[in-house]
Amino acid sequence: MKHSTLRSTLILIGISLSACLNAQAQTPALESESQEVPSEVVIQSSGNELKFVQTEVTLKTGTTVHLVFENQATVMGMSHNVVFLSNEEAIDRVGVAAIAAAETEYIPEDEDILFHTPLAAPSETVEVTFTAPSPGTYYYTCTFPGHYVLMRGVLNVTD
Predict the structure, then answer these.
(1) What domain range includes position 75?
(2) Are 25 and 54 found together in one domain?
(3) What is the pTM of this model?
(4) Do 20 and 75 fall into the same domain?
């Protein structure tokens, strides 16, 4: 009789421990489900050409975005960045101002710059995380001297 009681007790302890461990293992999963996971967007340069592969990106307003920029160039001197602007008219102004902004990786001070990646050397990948702005049409360009003329894209932000 003692063995039967001891065996039953051990089984109940085992079941209880298993239930506790299982509940603890599920807790982090529940916590991670409630945390916002950034949407990842990848933009690439088109090899040694002065253009982006992705010329249009659509995001939902308020989304946390993890932007990965892959500079696919292989030629020395083909550094690039991705600079997001509040309006299309700002592209030329910011592009020209960037020529004199070497000390800030060709990012001039301008109120129309929303966010940007660091400058990426050929074959380098850089990243930036930001929150998608209010609904509207925005623009992106590369501000390495002279590249803004050809390297352009559109960012559409929806509700």
Answers:
(1) 39-158
(2) no
(3) 0.77
(4) no
Question: What are 62-101's pLDDT values in tens digits?
Answer: 999 999 999 999 999 899 999 999 999 999 999 999 999 9
Chain segment 120-138, per-residue pLDDT in tens: 999 999 999 999 999 999 9
Tokens describing residue 124: 């380098």
156: its two tokens: 């559409």
Residues 6+ apart with CB under 8 A from 65: 38, 39, 40, 41, 59, 129, 130, 131, 132
Angle made by CA atoms 59, 61, 65, in degrees to the nearest 5: 55
pLDDT of residue 36: 57
User: In the chain, where do the E strands start and end?
Assistant: 39-44, 56-60, 64-70, 83-85, 113-116, 125-131, 136-141, 152-158
Residue with tokens 């929806």: 158
Q: Which residues contact 12 (CB under 8 A, 6 or more apart)?
A: none
Number of domain units in the chain: 2
Q: What phi and psi values does residue 153 have, to the nearest 5 degrees?
A: -155, 170
What's the rounded Cα separation, in Å, for the pair 142 and 35? Answer: 32
Residues 78, 113, single domain; the answer is: yes
